Amino acid sequence: MRRSKIGVVLFIAGAAVAAVSSARAYTIETHFTARCHEKLTAEALRNARAALEIAATPPATEGERALIDDLQFAPDDDMKDLAGATLLIGVRDNDLKGNSQDDLTVLSAIHGDPKSQREHCLRGPDEQEPGGSAAAVASCRAFIRDRVLLALQGLDETGRPDLGNRTSLGLHLSFRGRVDASLPAYYLRIGQAMHAIQDSFTHTYRTPDGMKITVVLNWLDSVNGSLVESVGGPAHATKLDVCDDPDDLRKTRRTLATDASTALLVATMGPRKTRDERMVAVDHVLDTYLDHSPGCTFANEWCQAPESQYKDQKNLFGCSTIPAGAMAGWSTVALLAFVGGRRRRIRRTFGRVFITMIAIGVGSAAARADGGKEAPAPEPTATSTTTITPAKAASSTSLAVPAMVTITTTTTTSADPNTHAPPAPTIVAVEEPGPRDPSQTAWGAYLGSSGSIDKTAVAVQLGARLKMSKHWTVGLDGEWNPWITLNGYRFGSGVINMYGTAILRFPLAYENFNLRVTVNLGASYLLMNLYGAPSGSLGIFAGASPAGLEWKLSRSLILIVNPLSIAYPVPQMRGVPLSYPQYRFNVGFEILKG
User: Fold this and answer.
1) Mean pLDDT over each residue of the chain, to the nearest integer
2) Smallest Cα–Cα separation from 84: which of 225, 183, 224?
3) How far is CA 458 from CA 144, 335, 452, 482, 585, in A?
4) Rg, Å, the chain Cα set
5) Which of 516, 570, 521, 592 minimizes the C-alpha distance to 548?
């Protein structure tokens, strides 16, 4: 029953998240969605550069390269300059707003924000029929013009993008986390405008040639289950979002979206002298690709739009069906949603597990301390008879007794032994590793490894140990802690951590294992170049393993398991600190001189 409930919950979570991702129209590159916006944008920039004969962008500086290499997506090789990367960042920002693409809770709120619907050329809550589509188109165009005006402020005197004219944008990087990145203003703002233009080809019904908008689709009401099509317009259609040209209609849409994006770049970077002239060219692009063609209503079935064949079907939960591309990744998304909330649960679990383990150990030790004795098994007895003579009776009591008293006691036992009875407990203490005299000190060594899924990483540790007493051991450790990002599946050299170690042990004399608590404090040295954190930065390291186990393999060898460990390297302390907290599972071996 419990497994079936969990399965239903995960299925619903996956379906819901897939639906959230489908709200992005042409999707951005993530673990589970195609790189549609990046593909269209890169092709448009190539076309514009060729048409305008724009000189190659200067190579990225060391700091710019650190930012580009740490993005949560992988730009094409010719998009890894600052201009191309910033344009792609701008296009993605309409969907992310500076958040991680894995932060599903926040992204769901972003896509459900009524004020942001115009950034995707979708209907807002007040854009209802009659006249709702015209209002939504006007709102989308107003957003595009606003972004273009901001972009034009980033041009130099010759009308070409000024890479030195920067603006700040909140951005989530794979390793670095959340930063405020300083990016060229033109490419950032024009990228945000291009996102809306591209979405207008998947969030609308259009005339047969695809050039004019007839109807704008509705995401908010459809996902809330409150859509009345005659009032709110047709529901968002997931199948219109694909960009791999599965048929002529969707191939035409993808081609026109690329052409419109190219035209916007040419209009703003072309050989025009004033801002007004550039805005006239921009309005011409919008009139060409984002003009509204009236006359399509619910009564005439939206002019019998061919796009209606892509309407999402309803499943047994009342939700839209999940497209094949989203379904392929729903399980991954459900896992990410689960992992997204694990930090608080892990912190609570530390205390619970540790207290439970201590209670088990203390209870076991107490059971051994009382001698490990159980009630003795009853011995077989037969019927016995005891006769008390008057003289004996008189010696024990002053009351009158009969002349003769006979007491008969009968005990019945099974002749067969109880094969289900537990074996007699072991009352011989298990030898502790190290010197036979627990008060003596002993040198040793430690070799271990660990892995983290919270901030994906591995670590290899090597250290020295000094057993000071029965309960206390200290040491000095070093570890290589490479970092891994699942966004692009990149492997970073990470940090080297050097730290002192203190171990508080709780020996369990009659068990094959002991309990331990470990704390670490030291320094962390950055081996990789990150945005705002150059290689060679030095900071602090702290760690704790509050619920560890040590198995006594022999007098000199111990297996150490720390199922819940915290490692907190902070190799960059200046400016905006760089931290990479990890929740680890650790396994290692400790050797002590016996």
Assistant:
1) 83
2) 183
3) 45, 20, 6, 6, 10
4) 36
5) 516
Q: What is the dihedral of CA 88, 257, 254, 230, to 10 degrees?
A: 110
The sign of the dihedral angle between the CA atoms of 204, 208, 210, 213 is negative
Place of tokens 């891994």: 484
Amino acid at 522: G
Parallel/antiparallel/unpaired status of strands 204-206 and 405-409: unpaired
pTM of the prediction? Answer: 0.76
SS3 179: strand
Nearest to 344 by CA among 9, 110, 583, 175: 583
Give the CB-side neighbour count of residue 267, counting CA atoms within 13 A: 26
Q: What distance in Å separates the CA atoms of residue 249 and residue 304, rounded to the nearest whole number?
A: 15
Average pLDDT value for residue range 60-89: 94
The CA distance from 81 to 36, in Å, is 20
Q: CA 12 to CA 17: how far, in whole Å?
A: 9
Instruction: Convert the pLDDT of each residue in 119-153 to its tens digit.
Output: 999 999 999 999 999 999 999 999 999 999 999 99
Structure tokens at 374: 């159980």
Is the separation of the CB atoms in 377 and 421 below 8 Å?
yes
pLDDT tens sequence across 478-505: 999 999 987 766 899 999 999 999 999 9
How far, CA to CA in Å, does 63 sit from each of 181, 493, 535, 588?
11, 17, 11, 38
- Beta carbons of 537 and 572 less than 8 angstroms apart: yes
